[in-house]
Write a structure and sequence with these properties.
By secondary structure, the protein is of the alpha/beta class. The protein has a single domain (13-288), classed as TIM Barrel, CATH 3.20.20.20. Helices cover 42% and strands 14% of the residues. The protein has ten helices and ten strands. It has an eight-stranded parallel sheet with strand order 8-7-6-5-4-3-10-9. Strands 1-2 form a two-stranded antiparallel sheet. Helix 4 (132-139) links the parallel strand 6 and strand 7. Helix 1 packs across helix 2 (74-94), helix 3 runs parallel beside helix 4 and helix 4 packs across helix 5 (164-182). The two termini are 18 Å apart. Bound molecules: pterin-6-yl-methyl-monophosphate.
């Protein structure tokens, strides 16, 4: 088990308890919180609130990756995320907070600009395919490598796997080994099965039921289920309709607790307080059994 992620500038992030990563989408069109945090003051206040609620990491993203989303150019992403990262980092430092900022991007240029502005972790939904691995190696920054079948615009067009668990796992191990070969220390590579990215409801459920297969790779695992559409299709209301995404807090917490039980290390969530509590109780139980 890895005790801590080593961060640039001599800091570290303890992994002795589950890590909660609070989501800060600086985008007009993300699935459940698009448009809410485009104003910098509102974004900074929301980040600080998430830290007060127990977030260890604030994940800042300037490009929506919801199904069907169009790609956003590097310059536009940088213009969205850099001022927010600078302001959040300054506010956290001003409070003596150890909380860390990650940058959610597939672009090496955006990752570099974000690290320069005060981010310390790269979170890449494309598994480092477009060059973020090299940035992580050069800057000695931890990197999250996620599995996505194809790209956001088309990924939900009839996704198919013969064996979703072994195919996603093999892909992630291959990407993680590529990161290590490029110079990212082994203990700095986090893998993520990419719930909802080019997967049907059954694929998502199968991955969630088999998280231990990903934990068994030895790489820390991150899980991102927060408010995702497949849970809405399970938690239908009395009319058989999916509930609003922002009401899927209990659904997300269920997956967080099961993730902790399976050995998952990090959770990317919108509702920090509820997931912090869910993860902490599940963790205490795991330590006991
Ligand atoms: N999901 C989204 C964006 N970034 N990053 C990781 N590592 N894992 C995820 O599951 C993930 C991610 C999409 O969710 P959002 O649009 O609600 O932020």
């Amino acid at each position: 088990m890895i005790d801590a992620l080593k961060l640039p500038v001599g800091r570290s992030l303890s992994m002795r308890r589950p890590i909660i990563m609070g989501i800060l989408n600086v985008t007009p069109d993300s699935f459940s919180d698009g448009g809410r945090w485009l104003d910098i003051d509102a974004a900074v206040a929301h980040a600080l609130r998430m830290v007060d609620d127990g977030a260890d990491v604030i994940d800042v993203g300037g490009e929506s990756t919801r199904p069907g989303a169009e790609a956003v150019g590097d310059d536009e992403q940088i213009a969205r995320v850099v001022p927010v990262i600078e302001r959040v980092r300054r506010a956290l430092d001003g409070r003596g907070s150890e909380a860390v900022i990650s940058i959610d991007t597939m672009s090496p240029r955006v990752a570099e600009a974000a690290l320069d502005a005060g981010a310390a972790i790269i979170n890449d939904v494309a598994g480092g395919r477009f060059g973020t691995i090299e940035v992580a190696a050069e800057r000695q920054a931890p990197i999250v490598l996620m599995h996505m079948a194809g790209e956001p615009k088309t990924m939900q067009d009839a996704p198919h796997y013969d064996d979703v668990v072994s195919e996603v796992r093999a892909y992630l191990v291959e990407r993680a080994e590529a990161a290590v070969a490029a110079g990212v220390p082994r203990g700095q590579v986090v893998i993520d099965p990419g719930i909802g990215f080019g997967k049907t409801r059954e694929h998502n459920l199968t991955l969630l039921a088999n998280l231990d297969h990903f934990v068994a790779t030895g790489y820390p695992v991150l899980l991102g289920t927060s408010r995702k559409r497949f849970m809405g299709s399970i938690c239908v209301d009395a009319n058989g309709d999916p509930p609003r995404p922002d009401t899927l807090v209990g659904a997300t917490c269920a997956t967080t607790a099961l993730g902790v039980a399976a050995g998952v290390a990090m959770f990317r969530v919108h509702d920090v307080l509820a997931n912090r509590q869910s993860a902490d109780v599940a963790h205490a139980l795991r330590q006991t059994s």
